[in-house]
Structure formats: C-alpha cells, structure tokens
Amino acid sequence: MRTLSKQDTVNVGIGFATGRRSFRKVLKTNILSWRECGLTQNPKFNLNLFVAYDLKYANTKVTDYTGIPPHLLGDLDGTFFLGKTAQAREIRSLVRSGVLSPEEARLFFCAGYAGQRNTVLYWAMKQRMDYLLFLDDDEYPMAVTNTRNWAIWSGQHVLLSHLRQMMDTGADITHGHHCGYISPIPSIEFSSSLTKEDFRNFIEAISNDIINWQSLESLMRQGGVTYADTAILTGDEPQEVLSVNHCKFISGSNLCINLTDSARVHPFYNPPGARGEDTFLSTLLEDSKVLRIPCYTFHDGFSAYDHLMDGVLPIRLKPVCADLSFVTDRFCRACVGWVRYKPLLLYLTQRENYESRIEEMRRQLAATLPKLAAYLGREEFLSIADELERYHQNVELHARQFRQTIEIWRKLVSYLEAERKTQGFPAMGRGLPADDPLRSAL
Fold this sequence. Notes:
This protein is of the alpha/beta class and about 450 residues long. The chain has helices at about 25-35, 65, 70-75, 85-95, 100-110, 110-125, 160-170, 195-205, 215-220, 230-235, 275-280, 325-350, 355-375, 385-395, 395-420, 435-440; strands at about 10-20, 45-55, 80, 130-135, 140, 140-145, 150-155, 175-180, 240, 255-260, 290-300. β1 (about 10-20), α1 (about 25-35) and β2 form a beta-alpha-beta unit.
C-alpha cells in the first residue's frame, strides 16, 4: 500500500493496447493535448507511456509503435514498449522465480485483448504508477454535438479530467463518455424480408451491457452516429455507477484505474477469441467506487476520420450504411465477438436463469439469422448460432479460467509488493490526503 506525501510526485501511466499504424498519430494528438492543458510542464506529475502492441493484427512493424519523434518523447518521463520480446522475457523471469507456472503466465499475458491490457496493467504496477489511464488507438480527445443540425466540435482534456476526479474523490475507477462511431451496427431500411421486429429480436439475442434495442433504435435514427450530450459537456459532477446484476459496467478505454491500493485493483479477462474484457472486469467492481465523469472521446470505429487529428473538422458526419462492405464486415465480426462472450456473462450474473436465457437466444437466432444473412447477402452471419453453441458448451471452462485469472493476479500483486519492500519502497496505499497541495496543482 502506498500513501502519497506532500513531497511526492504523482506517477501517471497512459496505456495503449494497440495493433494499428494509426497509433503514433493518435499518441501525438494526445501528447499535444496534455501539453496544451499544462500537464507535461507540471513537475508534480510524471507521465509514463505503456504500449502493448500486436504486430500480427494489421501486419505492422515495431517502429510503427516505437518511432516517436524526440520532440514528443521529451514530454514523457518514461516509455515502455511491450511487444512479444519484452513479454516473453518477463514471463521467463516470473516462471524461473516460481511466481507463476508457464500455463498461468500464458493465460494471463497472452490471451487476446485481455492479455494486452493485463500486460499494461502489470507493467504499470511494476513501475509504481499511481494511476493508469487506458486509451484506444481509434479514439481522439474531442467531442462532437449536433445541436444546430451540423457538427460542432470541442476539445477534451481527457487525462486531466480523470486525474482531477481521481484525486478529488479517491475513486477506484473513473470512466468517461464516448461519441462518434461507437456502434458497429449499421442503419437498416426495414422491409418485408427483414422487419423491424426481426431486427429487434436479433439485437435482443446478442445484446449486452452496451448494446440493447432501446439505445440502438435511437442511434439508428441518427444514422449510427452518437453525439455528445451538451449537458454532460458543460457539467462538472461525476455520476456514481450503480450495480446491475452485481456489476458496475465500464468502458475499456477513456478508463482510469487507481493503482495506489493494490488490493482494489482487478485484472481483465475475455473468453478465447471473444471480446468483453471490460465487461468481465465490471463483474468484479460491485464493492468498488466507480464514477462516470463528464469527459468525452471521439471514437472513430471505422477509421474514416483520422483527418480530425490534422484539424479538418467536418460539418456533417456520414451515416453508417449497410450497403458498404467494410461496414457489414465489422458488423459481422462484432456480432460474433458479442455472442462469444454472452454465455459467460449470463453464467456469472444470472446463473439461476442461465439455461432459459440460452434457450431464448437459440430461438431468436434461429428465427432471425436466415433473414439477416439474406438481407445483407452474407452467409457468414449464419455461423453466429454455431458460435453460441460452442461458447455455451465451454462456459464452465471459461468461468474457471476467469477465476484462475483473478488468482494469478493476486499472486502477481503479492510478488510486486514483496519486490517493493526488498527495494526499500513503501507499500501501496490510498492516494492523496484532502489537504495535499498536489490537488491544487490540478
């Protein structure tokens, strides 16, 4: 446990789990935002970058992540690039030291999206960060509204907003809002071949904490674009996230984790080949203080608006249309990812109704998938029913892996705490006292 004194600097980690060439451009935009709000010049804050990158995701090379211009690196106090080599070296060390078995290390560090985030989380703890902000490589520090029937843009101080709320409230987790192209679901022109009722049944079958019919119907009327709420943009007060089915749902980016009390930090997990790493973290937060703060990022889910980072601000945002092949491709991939993790989510949160909910999903998919596949001209949508059965059959295995991930994290935390004591560092505690002058620095 670590308690920050008045003389201490605040160690801030900024984490990316990435696989896109656009990473460096997104990082540049964020660094310039930190510079503009004064964080990079403030000696009370050490800003450290943690990048877990995947070269196979988009056939990238190491320099696509490490080749950051010196004039930008000068604004950072530490940089940690966490590719397969760094990861393998750390795993060998942990296994040789008897901290983890090879199987445990592979499960924790190498399992998909959650493995990347766990890599960043572990390294941030190892480097004694006090707070860790996760950002995505397809979101930008800006917000867009549509209050005058055209797009109006505003900059957002994302990192500064999270630090203020963390240090004012002592929250365990803060997460912000998203606008732009959040949903991969295209606008559908309903007809007798695919009715509104058909699509509603399909969405209800695959729905989760983020996607549901009520929110989606409103989104489709806006062409698939989510606009920022002006009341949130002009507000100052965070909202406490309430528990739903013992979960406090969060987003995986624009997400800040308080690391000053290791006992209150939790790991990520997703079933193999699925998403939902933020969702399964949410299932561990019932006793945590989780706040949603008035801060937006623009999510460029189709990678169509990277010119925003060059200062080109459109006055109209294009609708998400189902007749575009790349839109349909992303929609199909998202549906597969959602249906792969929904069995485990139901198993963990609604065990008493699990079998009946799975049976209901089967009926809804059987009735709607042939229509959806025919409407979109994509037979691969039919495989969604098979994916449901496969992940339903393996739900107990995935539940065991999730529990094992939690146990592995506890072992790693104990190891890191012991290392701190050996090196003469204080244990990790609970943030800044109310009268600490570091608060006024924000």
